[in-house]
Amino acid sequence: MRPSSGLWLVLALMALWEVSARLHWVDSPNWPPLSTVVVALFHDIASGELPPLIGGTLWRMGAGLAAGSIAGVVVGLAFCLAPVTRLLLGPAVELLRPIPVPAIIPPLVLFLGLDDPMKITVVALTAFFPVLTNTMQGVAAVEAEAVQMGRTFGVGPLRRAAFIVLPATAPYALAGVRVALGLSLVVAVVAEMIAGEAGIGHYLVMMQFAGRAPEMYATIILLAVLGYALNRGFVAMERRAIHWWFALGRQADG
Amino acid sequence: MRHSPGILVLVLVIGFLEFAVDAGMIRRALLPPPSATAEVLWELLSTGEFLPPLLSTLKLVFAGFFLGSAIGVALGTAMGISPAMFRLFEPLVELIRPIPKSALVPPLMLFLGIDDAMKITSVTLVVTFPVLLNTLQGVRGVDRVMLDAARTHGWGLGHTLRHMILPAALPFILAGMRVSLGLAMVLAVLSEMLAGQGGLGFLILDMQRSFQLRQMYAWLVILAVLGLLLNSIFLLAERRALFWQRR
């Protein structure tokens, strides 16, 4: 493939970054050359400083994402299949939804402390809403004939929910989880930036305070790579899990 | 009233919390009785003390939201109608997009300090990308036949943009802006927390750290209501702008 103009633009900007720092066009300790940042990144990974931090952050993200996604699917199914639950709990959910996530961290710190339980809860709360929304869209899109056929064959309501509605909803719910995945990493890092002394988010803020700019930029690059890789990995997993959906040539980006 | 049973549940929950705190089931050090929080909230509201922090947060959200949306729509449209622009900017956009914008707050603080410039920049950054990608998708989705028809009728680029491409892409653009509005609030609150100068985000964190919990919960309620209001206003505006869509 011939390198496109866009690739040249990226390379030119990277070169500009390197040269502007090396030749002191931007003369600031906060503006290290790109090569120094890359060296810092590999050094911090090889020295074993970053890997445990990444592991901790990913663990909190994963636990919160799993808990929030399961809650989102369960509540979404309940809201649609047993409308009385939506009548009772809907307003409470709608009141919680627009609160910006960082703002719920201070009260949660009081109840759950600064460590994993608080951070996992914050991530779970973030992941809950997109999964809930998409699950409800998915249930609404289930073909009425499929449910009616189940009823004709004498399948009970719980089994209908588990074996007819849930699989048909899966593509939508998974699209919600994919959105939640991106948010989860961001929120896990945000929680670490605001509270506690663990994980990659805390490291990032420490490097800023310590004025260690190369390490700070290296952390950001690492986070971008992580986010990109997680998304790519999830999409691949999604394609395998619901291959029948894509075989039907459909899309659930809802 | 469609919502009344749910609102009744909320009232019951608040009533129960009041009782539970009174009866010592929940420690006052964690949750003051809702009535005490309500008192503080009333004081903040009636004295007008709530306005300056609210306005300072609102300013960040609005400035960042409009700047980011403008950049997103402009760049997205340019990339959507011009293959050359698309080839030029696509790799750069794909490179910057996966960077968590919240992680950019620390370096932005180094360069722009802790004033509004830093906070508005971080909000702008987070707003830009969803709007850009949605605009691109919307502009590219415009019916070829319609574009050919416009050319047949001798419409210029500006005219086609204003009367065909942008209206057709509007549902996508607005959907992106709706996502971005939530993100704008998140980044505004976060950068206030990290920069520690003022605004609702700073106050909520500061009140918690100084154990003024009634104040913390009162400010949190104010922030939640602000979020709810902004969301509802946007949904309303979106519905009016897209009146021609079937709903």
From TrEMBL, chain A:
GO terms for biological process: transmembrane transport. Coiled coil: none annotated. GO terms for cellular component: plasma membrane. Belongs to the binding-protein-dependent transport system permease family. The keyword Cell membrane applies. Residues 54-234 form the ABC transmembrane type-1 domain. Keywords: Cell membrane, Membrane, Transmembrane, Transmembrane helix, Transport. This is ABC transporter permease. It is a multi-pass membrane protein. It holds the Pfam family BPD_transp_1.
Automatic annotation (TrEMBL), chain B:
It is found in: Cell membrane. It holds the Pfam family BPD_transp_1. It is a multi-pass membrane protein. The chain crosses the membrane at residues 60-86, 181-205, 217-237. CDD domains: TM_PBP2 (cd06261). It comes from the Bacteria. InterPro entries: MetI-like (IPR000515), MetI-like_sf (IPR035906). Its main location: membrane. Gene3D superfamilies: MetI-like. Signal peptide: none annotated. One of its GO terms (biological process) is transmembrane transport. The keyword Ligase does not apply. Residues 54-234 form the ABC transmembrane type-1 domain. Keywords: Cell membrane, Membrane, Transmembrane, Transmembrane helix, Transport. The keyword rRNA-binding does not apply. One of its GO terms (cellular component) is plasma membrane. PANTHER family: ABC TRANSPORTER PERMEASE PROTEIN MJ0413-RELATED, ALKANE SULFONATE ABC TRANSPORTER-RELATED, MEMBRANE SUBUNIT. Belongs to the binding-protein-dependent transport system permease family. This is ABC transporter permease.
